[in-house]
Amino acid sequence: MTPICPSPCLTSRTILFSTDPYGPYGHGSFLPITELLAKHFIKIFDKMSSEGVTSFDPKQEAVNDFIQHRRQFLPRTAWSSPCRSWFKQGTVDGEIMMWPGSRIHFFETMQNPRWEDYNLSYTTTNRFGYFGNGFAAREFSGQDLSWYIGMLEGGDLQPELPDEDFAEFMVQSQTD
């Protein structure tokens, strides 16, 4: 049986697929779809590695809503015409296994994971355990601590400010 899921890339606990039944594979070239899903997966992996997520799986309510939407939308499309096709499981009247929308709709929808559709498991019992000791790594690595204002000469390093560069300034300040 083909897994049913809210996203064309997730079918079970932390297993990602770039070619499941619900992609827009009948809409054109396969390569841009694969590239988009690779970027989507990288966002997932980034969240997992930076926030201590160990696994995730689609919420059943999200799966059910996706199925309902797909079953309401697809019969209105050319994909439902009476022809035998792989996206109808090799039958004339099979359930259409296609993204419920256009290729562009798929690209826009898949720009970012919809975390609200997933159950997440964490490395600790507290979802905010990844906050750690309350300090950012950049506070100890020599990176620029005011990067949010803008990078100094395009670099993300705290500038070296030796005391001798300020000797004249410090002397003038003391005599004023």
Automatic annotation (TrEMBL):
InterPro entries: FAD-bind_Monooxygenase_sf, FAD/NAD-bd_sf. Belongs to the FAD-binding monooxygenase family. This is Uncharacterized protein. The lineage of its organism: Eukaryota, Fungi, Dikarya, Ascomycota, Pezizomycotina.
